[in-house]
Amino acid sequence: MTIRQAFTAATLGLALPLVAQAEELTEVSLALDWTLNTNHVGLIVAREKGFYEEAGLSVDILPYSDSSSTALLAAGAADFAYMTSLGFMSARAGGADIVALWATMQHEAGRLVYNSNNDAIARPADLEGKTYAGFGSAWEEALISTMIEADGGTADYDTVTLGTGAYEALASGAVDFTLEVATWEGVNSDLLGREQSHFTYADYGVPDQQTGYIGTRSEVLEAHPELVRAMMQATQQGYTWAADHPQEAAEILIGAGDFQNPELVRGSMEVIVDGDYLRDGDTPVGQIDPDRFATMARFLFDSGVLKGQGGAALEWPGDVSDWISQDWMAE
Fold first, then answer.
1. Beta strands in the chain (DSSP E)
2. Where is the signal peptide (predicted)?
């Protein structure tokens, strides 16, 4: 039974098969935001260890494509989506009727990175007049400008858009700085022996945010709360198991993907667990902090990052509490 068939069943007053049965599982799809990586480890663990099947679900994890996972979700081409925080907030602010159910990383894993032997850089204010290798988003400009200005500098720097080529450009000294994810590109740089230093966003005026949202459409949440509960509790089981067994989880992920360097996956899982990214103290895996969510949303609105269809910056709506729902966590 697909989720669309489930909608029909609900309309007819039929019970949904949310407990695994021998003859039939409810089929749902989840779109990924990028190629398979350790952010997705709990999804793979939940599938490979049978947590989804135990919940009565057959979960089709859709590979990354040219269409963003957020767009696929909003268009109804996927039932759930793993989304970047910026991707989700941009779509929701623009009118997409989608809801965040989950946050994978309890802290921002991104950071601003530069070569350690660059004596001209010791603080964010030193980035004034330097060359940044970027990825083409308004978020980058807001983030970097905030950091430089919070350190007393002027946000006047050059930008070249290089995409993933930014990391080679930085290593060769062709540019002065870029942004990376500590749990992936940062691990890769260490494996390559690159001596690089970094600035943490939250130390210079940018709110520390949770990242890696999993969401669905409001219509799915409203019509099938038990299906959402089954999906998300099994997903939580997968990520919790990965947090408790990081190296075993790494091997499961390696077996499910096509990784040129398995050591990158193993090293990434080590950094994720050691850095309290999946689980911070007593905070349950996947829990969204409403205050931190609202703080980052306000930052993106005030910085002009969130724009309407005509390209104009959107105004702060005053409340974003209905952008998230974690009722599925309740017993």
1. 26-31, 57-62, 80-83, 98-105, 110-115, 131-134, 158-161, 177-181, 196-200, 211-217
2. 1-22
User: Contact 59/52 with Cβ under 8 angstroms?
Assistant: yes
Render 152-207 in DSSP notation, one character per residue.
Answer: T-----EEEE-GGGHHHHHHHTSSSEEEEETTTHHHHHHHTT--EEEEEGGGGTPP
Q: Per-residue pLDDT tens for 232-278?
A: 999 999 999 999 999 999 999 999 999 999 999 999 999 999 999 99
Q: Identify the CA nearest to 284 among candidates 194, 210, 173.
A: 210
First CA to last CA distance, the chain: 25
Query: 255 and 243 in contact (C-beta within 8 Å)?
Result: no
Distance in angstroms (rounded) separating the CA atoms of residues 75 and 202: 34
pTM over 0.85? The answer is yes
Neighbours of 306 (CB within 10 A): 23
On the question of pLDDT at 162 being above 70, the answer is yes
Give the containing element (helix H, strand E) for 247: helix 246-256
Q: Could you give all domains of the chain from N- to C-terminal order, each with its CATH number? A: 3-107+210-329 (3.40.190.10), 110-204 (3.40.190.10)
Nearest by Cα to 167 from 270, 58, 264: 264
